[in-house]
Write a structure and sequence with these properties.
Layout: E1 4-6, H1 7-29, H2 41-57, H3 64-78, H4 81-97, E2 103-105, H5 106-123, H6 132-147, H7 153-174, H8 176-181, H9 186-203, E3 238-245, H10 252-262, E4 263-270, E5 274-281, H11 284-291, E6 297-304, H12 309-314, E7 330-338, H13 341-349, E8 354-357, H14 366-374, E9 378-384, H15 391-395, E10 404-407, H16 413-421, H17 429-441, E11 444-450, E12 455-457, E13 460-462, E14 467-471, E15 474-479, H18 482-493, E16 500-505, H19 511-524, E17 529-534, E18 542-546
């Protein structure tokens, strides 16, 4: 019988879960109910989990509250896709529930998981049953009920896991799309994998978890997080950096004011749980004393810049190096997400400040989007996700930056382009957001791709390798003959009576073939203005905008 888990146990359990997600990510990907190549739920959950596993691997913890907090903070910053964001919110709730605890018993862990479920439901605008939300809610409810009269946390996890599996099996009947495809929810399956791996460690089924590996592109540079600041004439000797927990209600803005009175190059970034600071000062002791009024210090680094001046001069970055957080030079800026050199050039020409590379099958993380938001030299930054699976990750940026972030929920790249064409900086953030949303909603999008596998959808027999067409996310059909596909697109688009048609051809399409598609649509819609543009996007042969 195991009555409690400590920080070391939580860490090992988490690392086991990370390894299990990595091992099972393709199985989770394959549960997607639609046969287009957007099977990325497992990949997103695995990448999200791995970001926290890396952070946990670097430290040992005395209290389970500290270990869970480390995981939650890293999960939030590394969250990818809706499934990754929801996973991060579940563990964020667990972290809040275990805050300040040295160990956790069955009742405490069950209550913490329930808090995570509540946070996840609140974050989803229209939560649907038959998803990871349902599976985690039923699991948390069963765990809570069990823990009322039983202190065995291992048995609590067994009860939790069985409830999760039962709920997962029911998802196929709760969601009409899942039922038609005959599969369970992919995100729910990911949750079951995580919980099963955590229980496996307690039961000795996974005694040596695979340690988290840092992907090459995620290797952290040596030195300080704030490495791009210009010290100018060294008036203040000590470069002081720290991260403090936020355990009081004091506003970080008060800390900023205090630091500006005793130093320069002040940067204060905070979320609900931590405050991260960089300052040049002559009195680092006073800085740290004030920091302690917010909460315990998690990391501290103080460097004597005078002693390092010669070395720093040799290693100085070029003048064009970008600051980690760009100062506001204008009221409004825009960050957009897209994949494809041509599309990126279009957005840049339309006035977008920063482009995040990503899209279908390659959802950027919250951290990826946040980096570009912080590099945008504006007080308010509008974010165009251009994919429904990126919206939630983008929305998490608001709590992680001092800039105001407004997410315009564009679901396709053509919607994002139309939004930028209507962008007028003369107005309030609310007025601008409304105008961008209206412009996006006026656009219908046809996507042309291929079937990744054999499937049956709405009674339509689909075979791997066939061309697929979707209009605003709804299946038009699958075809072996491309001219038949174009005829179907023209037929289903006719009621929309488009006046402007833009054809963005992908990386695997020649310009000549793109022009043929343009001519075909021009013949079908003689009064429409048809444009053919190189998008260079992966996954989709064509993105077709109908306005």
């Amino acid at each position: 019988m195991r009555e409690r888990i400590d920080a070391a146990s939580f860490k090992e359990m988490f690392l086991c879960a990370n390894a299990a997600l990595e091992e099972n990510k393709q199985t989770i990907n394959d549960l997607n109910v639609f046969p287009v190549p957007d099977g990325d739920t497992g990949t997103n959950m695995s990448l999200t989990m791995n970001s926290a596993a890396i952070a946990l691997s670097k430290e040992n913890f005395e209290e389970i509250g500290d270990a869970s907090k480390c995981a939650a903070n890293a999960l939030l910053r590394g969250a990818r896709g809706n499934s990754g964001v929801i996973l991060s919110l579940l563990f964020r709730g667990i972290s809040k529930g275990l805050k300040g605890k040295e160990t956790a018993d069955a009742q405490e862990f069950a209550a913490a998981l329930s808090a995570g479920v509540d946070a996840a439901y609140k974050a989803v605008m229209k939560p649907a049953e038959g998803t990871i939300l349902t599976v985690s809610r039923m699991a948390a409810a069963a765990a809570t009920e069990f823990a009322k009269n039983n202190a065995d946390i291992e048995m609590m996890f067994e009860t939790l896991l069985q409830a999760a599996r039962d709920a997962l099996a029911e998802t196929v009947h709760q969601n009409p799309v899942l039922e038609r495809a005959g599969v369970v929810d992919a995100g729910g399956e990911g949750f079951v994998v995580v919980m099963d791996a955590m229980l496996a460690w307690m039961q000795g089924r996974a005694t040596t978890p695979v340690q988290a590996e840092v992907p090459q592109e995620q290797v952290e540079p040596k030195g300080a997080d704030f490495s791009e600041f210009d010290t100018g004439e060294i008036t203040f000797t000590y470069c002081t950096e720290f991260i403090a927990a936020r355990e009081t209600k004091k506003s970080p803005e008060l800390l900023r004011t205090f630091l500006e009175n005793i130093g320069d190059c002040v940067v204060v970034v905070s979320d609900e749980e931590i405050v991260k600071v960089h300052v040049h000062t002559n009195v680092p002791g006073e800085v740290l004393t004030e920091a302690l009024t917010y909460g315990p210090l998690q990391t501290v680094k103080i460097e004597n810049m005078r002693n390092q001046h010669t070395v720093l001069s040799k290693d100085a970055q070029p003048e064009s190096a970008e600051p980690e957080i760009a100062p506001a030079e204008k009221d409004y800026g825009v960050v957009t997400v897209c994949a494809g050199e041509g599309l990126a050039e279009i957005f840049t020409e339309l006035g977008v400040d920063r482009v995040v590379t990503g899209g279908q099958t390659m959802n950027p993380s919250t951290e990826d989007i946040l980096t570009e938001v912080n590099k945008t030299p504006a007080e308010t930054v509008f974010v165009l996700p251009n994919n429904k699976n990126i919206v939630m990750a983008a929305e998490q940026c608001a709590r992680l930056t001092e800039k105001k972030v407004v997410v315009v929920p564009t679901k396709t790249v053509p919607q994002g382009i139309s939004a930028m064409l209507s962008f007028d900086p003369n107005g309030t953030p609310e007025q601008i957001s409304e105008a961008l949303s209206e412009a996006a909603q006026a656009v219908h999008t046809v996507l042309v791709t291929y079937a990744a596998r054999d499937s049956d959808f709405d009674g339509h027999d689909i075979h791997a390798g066939e061309y697929l067409a979707l209009l605003d996310g709804a299946l038009v059909g699958s075809y072996t003959d491309f001219s038949e596909l174009m005829g179907a697109i023209a037929k289903v688009s006719a009621p929309l009576e488009p006046e402007i048609i833009s054809v963005y051809y992908g990386e695997d399409v020649t310009e000549a073939d793109g022009q043929k598609v343009g001519k075909s649509l021009g013949a079908a819609f003689k009064d429409a203005d048809v444009n053919v543009i190189r998008g260079g996007q992966p996954v989709y042969y064509y993105m077709i905008s109908l306005e």
